């Protein structure tokens, strides 16, 4: 497969692993006190486990799995609001595949569908718009979520709906942005992270500049990375080089896709339709300033929160309590490994997730459960 | 009034003269139903056991009369959207699925039943095409459809057409395949590339705006299984890797036999187009459904003969040994990645759902 196989070349991967081993030795990382690198993006977490990279890297290096799975960090209250919306008469709720399994306090969208709500999986917000065109008698709501990667497409669907005067299409907007939670993590005194592997797809939209504060204010290296094994390992080596040299800068391993300035057209689309909310709640991380997006006043007609009076639109910003014993928050902060959670693999499994990190295959608990539990399984 | 669905002996296809649709009358037990059966099903499934139109089919015990032979009996319901897809349709699926469930148990299929639930308003031309496809698949598998049932339900009560087939077959004396029989050291074989059916259906639903040349692998596996049992009589077990894919089947075997199964990623055959669809959607080809792919567990000393037998068969040209049975991890399946890493290959969770980014 062109553009894929060359980044999965075992010889190249072996060479990178050797280089990583030498760098970890030089920095002095050990099993007891490893060099810790957070991969921010859930896609990277997935790739690490899918290719077994965590078992190939030296013991003195530890991957900490960051908050970059948009499905996982969605708080229960927002899922509850969405389920409530889906159950309203006349509503046809559309969303991406893995969003239907996220548990709220009263079940998931999949459960709502089984109970009679019309919930449909779409592959893009434009598919949801097409459903609105085809079913003028129904209120088609798109449960929009995701980081800057998915936001431009959602914005484009709203603008298209406006151009066509489609009155039965709205967004339940749960878009979030990457830099604010990173700042929140870096300000946490419990956090001990030596460097970051930056998200590839998000950076394709926002560029590399928004990470500059990580290097300049917090003195941690950031390397924006692609998603193939050789991409990831090269990015890890670049982070380690910086640490070894006592530097902290933003570098771009994924230059074949990511430009420093990002994608100006996509950024303009987003800016036209969305604006930051003052605060937005993240599952496990609590409320973070300016981390969530809402629709601008001009597009109020396409805002499900305003149109149907749900969520923040109903003046409601109550945090829904997480389940007892669930330690998703500590895992997302990198303060705890998934198997250390008391619910991991017992009360909380991919078949019946308690916490959000077990829901999506990009969630670190699900990834651990699916791919990593080899040692436990062998015992 | 007769439904009039004529056969076209030259083309071998059923060719109704005009577009008509199924009405509630076709399920009412009266003249319309009699005509539907007489004009559509009887000529297509033509065989003496069916033609007598009794309430049951009476079969020659044939191979069952041999001492030590056993009767194998299976049933399966078929629902698929779309009903017709590249490489097959619900009819072919309904025949192959049941034939394959018999075949992987080492049985020679004897006869099938076919019950159809049809939604009011269903296109008769489409139904005739699906029935013709059942006839062709049954002919290829060398099995007769000897009894059946037709029900019509009101519009909205079914998604077009549901088919249930049951099958009986004969297991020869001495053949005893069982998932619990897998032993450390055994080889794990597949007869061809994985995930063709699952990826074809995902693309055929038209939600993805993808175009591929992919076709479902829907096909009867009884010939392939007989070739395997001749070449490798010590074969421990076989399964057809339908919903849940090869990952689900191997997890079942690992659990039943309390062994570990270790796969080697480079040896797992997957077509580039299937890999492409999986890369785009974040799916695993080992979790995708197949309809003509069997997994067999064969003792190491017979693995070479088994592989050669499969490769000599038209449905096994792409056969590979993809891994082996080990002592540990008990009850689990692991995959050694092409980079030398190792990961668990777990059961999929329900239907594969595409990831958000």
Describe the structure.
The complex is a heterodimer of chains A (379) and B (357). Chain A has 15 helices and 13 strands. Chain A has 379 residues and is an alpha/beta fold. Chain A has a domain at 327-373. A 5-stranded parallel sheet of chain A has the order 2-1-7-8-9. In chain A, a hairpin with a 3-residue loop joins β11 and β12 (286-289). The relative contact order of chain A is 0.15. The longest helix of chain B has 18 residues, at 124-141. The model of chain B is unreliable at 1-17 (pLDDT under 50). Chain B is 29% helix and 23% strand. In chain B, the strands form 4 sheets. Chain B has a 7-stranded mixed sheet. Chain B is globular, with a radius of gyration of 21 Å. Chain B is built from 9 helices and 15 strands. The chains are: A alpha/beta (379), B alpha+beta (357). The A-B interface holds A 1, 4, 8, 10, 13-14, 42-43, 46, 49-56, 70-71, 96-101, 121-123, 127, 145-147, 149-150, 201, 229, 350-351, 360-362, 369-374, 377-378 and B 207-209, 260, 272, 275-276, 279, 282, 328-332, 334, 336-344, 346, 349, 353-357.
User: What structural class do you assign from the helix and strand content of chain B?
Assistant: alpha+beta
The number of helices of chain B is: 9
Overall mean confidence score, pLDDT of chain A = 89
Helix content of chain B: 25-40%
Distance between the termini of chain A: 38 Å
CATH architecture of the largest domain in chain B: Alpha-Beta Complex
Low-confidence stretches of chain A: none
Tell me, what's the shape of chain A?
globular
Walk across the major sheet of chain A and give the strand order.
2-1-7-8-9
| Tally of separate helices of chain A | 15
Described by its quaternary structure, the protein is heterodimer
According to DSSP, the number of beta strands of chain B is: 15
Please identify the structural class of chain A as seen in this structure. Answer: alpha/beta
Fraction in helix of chain A: 25-40%
Order of helices and strands of chain A: HEHEHEHEHEHEHEHHEHEHEEEEHHHH
Strand content range of chain A: 15-25%
Largest sheet of chain A: 5 strands, parallel
Interface with most residues: A-B, 49 and 31 residues
CATH superfamily of the largest domain in chain B: PurM-like C-terminal domain
Query: In angstroms, what is the radius of gyration of chain A?
Result: 21 Å
Protein name (chain B): Hydrogenase expression/formation protein HypE
Domain PurM-like C-terminal (chain B): 183-335
Domain PurM-like N-terminal (chain B): 67-171
InterPro entries (chain B): HypE, PurM-like_C_dom, PurM-like_C_sf, PurM-like_N, PurM-like_N_sf
């Amino acid at each position: 497969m062109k553009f894929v196989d060359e980044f999965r070349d075992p010889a190249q991967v072996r060479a990178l692993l050797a280089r990583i081993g030498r760098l970890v030795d030089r920095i002095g990382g050990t099993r007891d006190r490893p060099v810790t690198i957070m991969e921010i993006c859930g896609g990277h977490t997935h790739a690490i486990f899918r290719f077994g990279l965590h078992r190939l890297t030296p013991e003195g290096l530890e991957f900490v799995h960051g908050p970059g799975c948009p499905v996982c960090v969605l708080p229960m209250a927002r899922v509850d609001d969405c389920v409530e919306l889906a159950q309203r008469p006349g509503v046809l709720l559309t969303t991406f595949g893995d969003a239907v399994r996220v548990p709220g306090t009263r079940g998931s969208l999949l459960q709502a569908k089984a109970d009679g709500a019309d919930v449909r999986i779409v592959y893009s917000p434009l598919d949801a718009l097409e459903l609105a065109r085809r079913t003028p008698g129904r209120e088609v709501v798109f449960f929009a979520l995701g980081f800057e990667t998915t936001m431009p497409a959602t914005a484009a669907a709203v603008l298209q709906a406006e151009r066509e005067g489609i009155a039965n299409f709205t967004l339940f907007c749960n878009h979030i942005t990457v830099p604010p939670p990173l700042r929140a993590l870096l300000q946490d005194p419990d956090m001990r992270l030596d460097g970051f592997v930056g998200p590839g797809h998000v950076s394709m939209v926002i560029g590399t500049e928004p990470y500059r504060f990580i290097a300049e204010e917090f003195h941690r290296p950031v390397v924006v990375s692609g998603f193939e094994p050789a991409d990831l390992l090269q990015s890890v080596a670049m982070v380690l080089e910086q640490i070894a040299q006592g530097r902290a800068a933003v570098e771009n391993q994924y230059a074949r896709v990511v430009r420093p300035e990002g994608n100006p057209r996509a950024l303009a689309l987003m800016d036209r339709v969305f604006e930051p909310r003052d605060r937005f709640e993240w599952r496990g991380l609590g409320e973070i300033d300016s981390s969530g997006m809402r629709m601008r006043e001009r597009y109020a007609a396409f805002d499900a929160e305003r149109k149907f009076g749900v969520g923040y639109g109903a003046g409601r910003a109550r945090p829904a309590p997480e389940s007892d014993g669930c330690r998703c928050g500590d895992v997302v902060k990198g303060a705890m490994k998934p198997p250390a959670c008391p619910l991991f693999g017992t009360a909380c499994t991919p078949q019946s997730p308690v916490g959000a990190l077990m829901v999506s295959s990009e969630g670190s608990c699900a990834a651990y459960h699916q791919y990593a539990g080899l040692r436990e399984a062998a015992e | 009034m007769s439904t009039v669905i004529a056969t076209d002996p030259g083309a071998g296809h059923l060719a109704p003269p005009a577009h008509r649709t199924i009405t509630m009358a076709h399920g009412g037990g009266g003249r319309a139903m009699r005509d539907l059966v007489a004009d559509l099903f009887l000529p297509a499934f033509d065989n003496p056991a069916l033609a007598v139109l009794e309430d049951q089919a009476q079969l020659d015990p044939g191979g069952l009369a041999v001492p030590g032979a056993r009767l194998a009996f299976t049933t399966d319901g078929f629902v698929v959207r779309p009903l017709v897809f590249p490489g097959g349709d619900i009819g072919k699926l309904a025949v192959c699925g049941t034939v394959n469930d018999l075949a992987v148990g080492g049985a020679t299929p004897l006869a099938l039943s076919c019950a159809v639930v049809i939604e009011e308003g269903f296109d008769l031309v489409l139904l005739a095409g699906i029935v013709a496809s059942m006839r062709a698949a049954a002919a290829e598998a060398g099995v007769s459809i000897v009894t059946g049932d037709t029900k019509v339900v009101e519009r909205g009560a079914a998604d077009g057409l549901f088919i249930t087939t049951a099958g009986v077959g004969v297991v020869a004396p001495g053949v005893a395949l069982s998932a619990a029989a897998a032993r450390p050291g055994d080889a794990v074989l597949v007869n061809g590339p994985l995930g063709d059916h699952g990826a074809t259906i995902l693309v055929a639903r038209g939600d993805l705006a993808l175009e591929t040349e992919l076709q479902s692998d829907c096909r009867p596996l009884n010939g392939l299984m007989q070739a395997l049992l001749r070449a490798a009589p010590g074969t421990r077990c076989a399964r057809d890797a339908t919903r849940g894919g090869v990952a689900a089947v191997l997890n079942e075997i690992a659990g039943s036999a309390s062994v570990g199964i270790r796969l080697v990623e480079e040896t797992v055959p997957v077509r580039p187009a299937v890999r492409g669809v999986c890369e785009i959607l974040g799916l695993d080809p080992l979790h995708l459904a197949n309809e003509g792919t069997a997994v067999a567990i064969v003792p190491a000393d017979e693995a070479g003969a088994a592989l050669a037998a499969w490769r000599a068969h038209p449905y096994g040209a792409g056969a590979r040994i993809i891994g082996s049975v080990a002592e540990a991890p008990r009850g689990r399946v692991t995959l050694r990645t092409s980079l030398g890493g190792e990961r668990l290959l777990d059961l999929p969770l329900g239907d594969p759902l595409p990831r958000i980014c």
